[in-house]
Amino acid sequence: MQAMQYITAAVLAAFVSYIGAWYMGAIEGNFALLLLLATVVTGAYWLAERIVFLPQRRQAAQAIEDAAAQRRAELDRMGIKKVDGDVAEAKGRILMQPWWLDWTAGLFPVIAVVFLLRSFLFEPFKIPSGSMIPTLLVGDLILVNKFTYGLRLPVINTKITQGNPVQRGDVMVFRYPPQPSMDYIKRVVGLPGDEVAYLDKRLTVNGQPVPTTALPDFFEQDSMRYFRQFEEQLGTHKHRLLNSPEAPAFVQGASNFKFRDQCRYSVEGVTCKVPEGHYFLMGDNRDNSLDSRYWGFVPDENIVGKAFFVWMNFGNLKRIGSFN
């Protein structure tokens, strides 16, 4: 048992060190991998507790009870009726989980539920930037549907069920292609095979202008400014977007991404042919979004899920609800 204490202390120290190094920026952490390892490790302790450690404690407790019963019988034969010692208290101490099992096997059910929910059903995210204003604001806590586009194995992200096809206008969370450990959120504009053009601040898909209607200006509270606001319809999705007439139309600083030869850049903007198995995504805050115009296409294997609900914004409770 003492050896298990040292082993468990080393395992917990390794987890704490990993989280600490991640928090301090010394390493690039992977939460999905960390949660998987935590589930496997605590699951192993939980199984060992059921098969080995708990039966051993029960056997030891039974041995104490049997010894106490034998002692009482001997004292009865001697005519002694009063017996010192609390057998129930001693049994309770023996049956109680030691700390190293309490911090491993005891946490397994909670960790397993979180792992399953996050991997296959819904995953929470926090909006860190204003690239999706006015649809999503900084500080929105959102839920992402992990099974709409098909279930994927955690960590390796391999699809195991077909799911529904991605639709133009979906708000998608995905692994940022230049740095897959980071999650990004944008709106799907182009599907595989589409030709997407964003020229002079106007979006066209396969040569057809995307319908756009002017709306009253949007007041952005953080910057205390008004922005031109429009309603755009991508497929069946109607959503709002921001556009700044004074911002330049050309794309400045596009990287040398994969399939860049499928894009043509000019002073008017960019035109791209979306490769098979890839998607073209843009932010709703069109002039303040680092998106496919700059770093390229999102491959299917980078998809995390479809964002669909704001479950909390501590600065504005009216934000809670679904969105397009």
UniProtKB/TrEMBL annotation:
The keyword Iron-sulfur does not apply. It is a single-pass type II membrane protein. It catalyses: Cleavage of hydrophobic, N-terminal signal or leader sequences from secreted and periplasmic proteins. Keywords: Hydrolase, Membrane, Protease, Transmembrane, Transmembrane helix. GO terms for molecular function: signal peptidase activity. Residues 101-312 form the Peptidase S26 domain. It is found in: Membrane. The chain crosses the membrane at residues 7-25, 31-48, 100-121. It comes from the Bacteria. Its EC number is 3.4.21.89. It is an enzyme of class 3 (hydrolase). InterPro entries: LexA/Signal_pep-like_sf, Pept_S26A_signal_pept_1, Pept_S26A_signal_pept_1_Lys-AS, Pept_S26A_signal_pept_1_Ser-AS, Peptidase_S26. It holds the Pfam family Peptidase_S26. Belongs to the peptidase S26 family. This is Signal peptidase I. The gene is lepB.
